[in-house]
Amino acid sequence: MNTLKNANESTPSEVYQAGYREGYRYGGCQAILARIPPQISGKTNIRVLYIPQGFEAIDQGMSDALQQLAAECIIATPDKMLEAARNCRPDLVIVMNGLHVFPADHVAHIRMIRQMGIKTAVWFVDDPYFTDETVELSVSYDVVFTHEQDCVSFYKEAGCSQVYYLPLAVSPNTFAPVRTTIEQQFDICFIGNAFWNRVELFDQLEPFLQDKKVIIAGGHWDRLKRYDQMSRFIRIGWVPVPETVAYYNGSRIVINLHRPTSAGSDNHNGRGLSGSSINPRTYEISACGTLQITDIRSDLLRYYRPGYDIETFQDVGDLQSKIDYYLQHEQERLAIAWRSLWTTRQYHTFVHRVRQLFEFVL
Question: Which of 5, 205, 286, 361 could form a disulfide with 344 if both were Cys (CB 3.0 to 4.6 A apart)?
């Protein structure tokens, strides 16, 4: 059984090969980016007050896109939302998610803002996992956006008159090709919390992973039945976004597995709503120019083409087979990774989504 080596244990030959491979990958990414025309668009005559949730990558992408596309974008924290609306009198207030960090009187504040004649919108980006809470919030807004296609009818049935499907996206200023060091380079990477379906997958993968260079990062990975055998791969806890970007860039394959939708300790989805839409990680991995192998959500085919700019798996055996294949077929792996970068930057940034949002609300 092989064990992971750190940079100090690598031979000069291994260091050279890692450097060459990294330079080739990064150079290919830069060639792809050079072929993508810049996004040129005029500003929309609208003044927006944006209230972030605290999702660093999403909030940064939204802030950048709103600054680029709106005549004016004011950003305020959830506890300062009402005060900012009174002082600035925007045309539109956009609330990101409205959960977790928002004050208990948030709904009352939204109603007061509407009474001022200001339009309000919320974008739920955690659906359907917190729908026990979001269904109560949704009816307080003029417009509801959800990234989950299966939740559109749910909010309409709850009494919301304007509900729109708005898929997630990526901030190209945050998730992008970067150069990595040998310490950040892995065969296989997974970053995310250990929801029970992910625990089951990696328990089954444990023997297969033992001779590979692997990083698994996030919370609750001590749930693994085979934690002792896997612990040397695991980094427990939150990974800051810049480090996540580095690990995505440095890894030859990044696995993506959506969280389960069933109600329980990890979800507040008492109605058992299904999930067909893809998570933000799908776009974020692709924006780094890395081969992603993801489980299959039915909405995926709207945005990516399996075998062309993304790869998919149906079960553990299928995943192992594809990991083996792409670790042995470097040029095919890189071709898919580079195409994923092109697709994402061309069609799936927050600028694209904010344009859609404005079309719905104006």
Answer: 286
**How many H helices and E strands in the chain?**
13, 12
The encoded tokens of residue 187 equal: 């065969």
> Which residues are CB-neighbours of 212 under 8 A, at least 6 positions away?
2, 187, 188, 327
* List of residues 6+ apart from 73 with CB closer than 8 A: 47, 48, 50, 63, 66, 67
The strands making up 186-191's β-sheet, listed across from edge to edge, are 234-236, 214-218, 186-191, 251-256, 291-295, 311-313
CA angle 35, 39, 42 (to 5 degrees): 155
Looking at this protein, which amino acid is placed at residue 336?
Answer: I
Give per-residue burial for 230-264: e unless 16+ CB within 10 Å, then b: beebbeeeebebeebbbbbbbbbbbbbbbbbbebe
Q: Which among 25, 44, 38 has a CA at the least distance from the CA of 92?
A: 44
**Is residue 1 pLDDT above 60, yes or no?**
no
Other C-beta atoms within 10 Å of 277: how many?
Answer: 23
Whole-angstrom distance, CA of residue 21 vs CA of residue 139: 52
Residue 127 one-letter amino acid: D
Dihedral sign for Cα 177, 27, 251, 344, please.
positive
DSSP codes of every residue in 177-222: -----GGG-EEEEEES---HHHHHHHHHHHHHHTTS-EEEEES-GG
Give CA–CA dist 70/315, Å, rounded.
44
On whether the CB atoms of residues 181 and 251 are closer than 8 A, the answer is: no
C-alpha 125/C-alpha 123 separation (Å) is 6
Rg from Cα positions in the chain: 21
Interval 9-24 mean pLDDT = 82
**How many CB atoms lie under 10 A from the CB of residue 13?**
8
Q: Does the pLDDT value for residue 32 go beyond 90? A: yes
17 — pLDDT class (breaks 50, 70, 90):
confident
Q: What is the residue whose two structure tokens read 């055996």?
A: 317
